[in-house]
Structure formats: C-alpha cells, structure tokens
Design brief:
Length: 206
C-alpha cells in the first residue's frame, strides 16, 4: 500500500469516527431532552393531583363543619362556627405574561438511556439517509484464485473437412515427419486419400 493510499485511508477513518461521534452526541442529546420532557410532564401531573387532593380535603372539612352546625341547630343552640361560605369562582381575566423568573437549580442526572431508546433515536435521526459517510478508498486487488472456473459451453460445430475424390477413401494413418531435411522425425496422425480397392469380378465358368 502506497503512502498516498494510506493517507487517504487514514483521513477516511478519521472522518468516519467524527461522524460516528456526532451521531452519538445527537442521540444522547435527544434522549436527555426526551427524559427532561417526561420529568416535566410528571411534575405537572403531580402538582395537579396535589391541587385536586387539597380541594377534596377542603370540601370534606366544609361538609363536616356544616353537618356539626346542623346538629347544634337541631339541639336548639346557636353554633359558634360560622357556615362555610360557598365558593364563587371569580372571573378569570387573562393578562399579559410576566417576566421569566430565575433559572432553578439543576436537577440530578437522569438514568442512562436504554438500548431501545438509543435504537429509536438512531432510527429517527438516520431516517433521512444522513448517516452515510464518504466513499472509502479502493482496496488492493485480491490474490488470484487457484480454483478453476466452471466449464464453458460447447463451441459451435466446425466446417466439414476436405473430402476425397471419387474412387478414393479417407484413411487415418501415422506418418514420420521432420521439419528440416536432416531433422528429427516424429510420428504424427494424418488423413490421406487412398484408392478404393475393389475385388475383381469373378470370371464366369464355361
């Protein structure tokens, strides 16, 4: 591997690591924001439930006091406790929003995100195909395979060979052939045309 290719590979790996760190940071921020939103919703729900409990307790105390007053009146005595005045809902007038108060103290760190939350945040972040990095450098060519490839299809049938003239028959023979006058002879197959031998017609007997 050349130095240039190594540098390109190193730059590609560095960019991929930076991209991965950025993705993890975005995921963690999203999970933390989601947890803070859940805690705020839970706090609002708890405050509303506390208000409802206080209203219910106040109504119960009012009913108990009113019951005692009625018992005292039935006995012919004057009750000391004044009746609970009926609550009248004042007219609510929506005014302008006031100035924001000072920031409260930072809460305790929440629990670490679960695998399901990380997977959901990653899928949401990468939904727009934004998690694909740059194309890496081309790798070195692999070693030549020692396994032979499959046998190819049979080739087309070749043209017909030369034919012998009438009265001759093709015959496969072996010939001694030399490339030069005094060269070494070697035996090679050859097809030659030899006269067709026919048996003589029988002579008729007188």
């Amino acid at each position: 591997m050349t130095d240039s290719r190594r540098r390109k590979l190193g730059v590609g790996l560095l960019l991929a690591m930076l991209n991965a760190f950025a993705i993890v940071g975005v995921i963690v921020l999203g999970v933390v924001a989601f947890q803070q939103s859940e805690r705020a919703t839970q706090a609002e729900t708890a405050a509303a439930a506390a208000d409802e409990r206080r209203d219910a307790e106040s109504a119960e105390r009012g009913e108990a006091i009113e019951a005692l007053r009625e018992q005292v009146l039935e006995l012919g005595e004057e009750p000391v406790v004044e009746p609970v005045p009926e609550s009248t809902s004042p007219t609510v007038v929506n005014g302008k929003d006031g100035q924001d108060g000072e920031d409260g103290a930072d809460g305790l760190p929440g629990p670490a995100p679960t695998q399901e939350q990380l997977l959901a945040a990653l899928q949401s972040f990468c939904a727009g195909n934004t998690c694909r990095g740059e194309r890496g450098a081309q790798g070195d060519p692999g070693a030549a395979s020692q396994v032979p490839g499959p046998v190819g299809p049979a080739g087309p049938v070749g043209p017909a060979g030369p034919t012998c003239p009438v009265g001759s028959t093709a015959q496969q023979v072996w010939l001694s052939v030399a490339e030069t006058q005094y060269g070494t002879f070697s035996r090679q197959p050859a097809t030659i045309c030899r006269p067709t031998v026919t048996a003589p017609a029988p002579v008729p007997t007188p």
